[in-house]
Design a protein that fits this description.
This protein has eleven helices and twelve strands. Helix 9 links the parallel strand 11 and strand 12 (232-237). It has one domain: Alpha-Beta Barrel (TIM Barrel). The protein has an eight-stranded parallel β-barrel, surrounded by eight helices. By secondary structure, it is of the alpha/beta class. Helices cover 35% and strands 28% of the residues.
Length: 257
């Protein structure tokens, strides 16, 4: 297949981005604890309105996850994602959850999504990552979600015997835009980001890393900022900004210095 050309959103500044997470479950904006679908907190019944709030507070990119899609293996909340991209056509959006084939990737990018995130598919079929990067240059992010250093798949329901750092090295030559590294044990638990494991991921390959999982307050942002030069280009935050222990605008302002 010949690589297609798609419009590119406005280039982002070169410093660590604070990226609000919008996790979609049954059409609602929720947050899970350690990826458990039955342990979810609904923060909004209108995800598009939630996106509007983060944009007003200065978000320069959104992280959207189709939780139902991650378990089903196909997009489930696609209409909500489309509503967000239609409302904010110039806002970069990255989407993950249930993306398993090139047709789904193309549909999302055509709808205005800036990057698609390959998680389960990337772990179970690494060759697909190279194929996707060739077909959609600079549009592919790999999501590596790990527990005790081992990658999880199927919406975090299964823990593999593959080390996240080793898999990151595997994708180094494929043209992956970045890797989102999530520490499952800390995700949604408000226990602080795992700096040590995040740095290990940074050093495992030359691919830029977006940190995720456990970010609670400004102390976590400051800790990530201190090791930013290791290759950290962003930090995804969810429960902290929803519950008010972290102010998005303040955090981004600090990272811009």
């Amino acid at each position: 297949m010949r690589a297609r050309e798609y419009p590119t959103k406005t280039l982002e500044p070169v410093f660590m981005l604070i990226i609000p997470a919008i996790d979609l479950k049954d059409g609602h904006c929720v947050r899970l604890k350690q990826g458990v679908m039955d342990d979810s907190t609904v923060f909004s019944s209108d995800p598009a309105a939630m996106a509007s709030q983060w944009v007003q507070e200065g978000a320069r990119r959104l992280h959207v996850v189709d939780l139902n899609g991650a378990f089903a293996g196909i997009p489930v909340n696609r209409e909500v994602v489309h509503e967000i991209t239609e409302n904010y056509p110039s806002l970069p959006v990255q989407i993950g959850g249930g993306i398993r084939d090139l047709q789904t990737i193309e549909a999302y990018i055509t709808a205005g999504v800036s990057w698609v995130i390959l998680g389960t598919k990337a772990v179970k079929n690494p060759e697909f990552v190279a194929e996707a990067c060739k077909e959609f240059p600079e549009k592919i992010i790999v999501g590596l979600d790990a527990k005790n250093g081992f990658v999880a798949t199927e919406g975090w329901a299964e823990i593999s015997d593959i080390k996240a750092a080793e898999l990151a090295k595997r994708f180094e030559q494929d043209g992956v835009s970045s890797i989102i590294y999530t520490d499952i044990s800390r995700d949604g638990m408000m226990q602080g980001v795992n700096i040590e494991e995040t740095v290990i991921m940074c050093r495992a390959s030359s691919i830029p890393i977006i940190a995720s999982g456990g970010i609670t307050n400004m102390e976590d942002i400051k800790a990530l900022k201190e090791v930013e030069d290791e290759g950290i280009v962003g930090a995804i935050t969810g429960r902290a900004i929803y519950e008010g222990t972290l102010d998005l605008a303040t955090a981004q302002s600090y990272c811009d210095k």
